[in-house]
Design brief:
271 residues; alpha/beta; 10 helices
Amino acid sequence: TSARAESKYSSAMQRMASVASLSNKSAALVRTQVCSILRRHCLVGASTMSTRTNSLANQRIAGIVFDMDGTLSIQNLDFDEMYRLAGVPKDKDILTEIKKMSPERAAEASRVVQEIEADGARTMQLMPGVIQCFQHLATKDVKLALVTRNSTDTVLEFYRRLWLPAGLPPFSPAISRDGEVLPPDQHLISARPSVNLTNLPPKPDPGAFFAIAEYWQLERGNHLVMVGDSPGHDIAFGVAAGATTVLIDVDGSASTKVKPHSTPDFVVQDW
């Protein structure tokens, strides 16, 4: 229900306020941490967790891939309830497990997921600092993409309610678990490379990242960056693709879920 999503959104806002009150950094510095990827070609002032050698030092960033929920928008999805109602253990991947179900069970579990996602779409809000960061990125020669495990309908709602009204350009490309998402206003679409962006596996499988690199006509490597809030989905996705990875950890909980295959190069608290 919408009440459930609003409660989740309120909790997320409370966590962010708590983190902000404890931070010794100025709000301006916190907001520009992710944006410093382009400003200085590396994440100055962000903590690093990785022992990998693919540092951004002395490299020019060519493209950045962003997650949506919990990264661009405040996390307001009740995943505990989603997994419970869908009948999937919390330590399993819900999209993978639904594919293993009988047609009847899969239809019911998919309905649960879509309902909770729709609730979240109605109340989602952008993370503080996102608009300012992307206004800065728009002035730079860098390619920007979106990859989410959420649905096409949610991405379209994100575009309609939050992204396009803020005057921000659509991602090129934007990919949901259903495939490529074109912006609601078709005139915003520029010439597009003929790269297959359908039937791509969801994160953390790196297939979508490889397809984006091909779409951008760029070599794979650490000059491409993945930014997200989930070690298991976003960071593992970027690591598997050989990209530099940035973990957004608003309340400090995401860092506790890092595994050897999902260790980020950098950890930031906010935008």
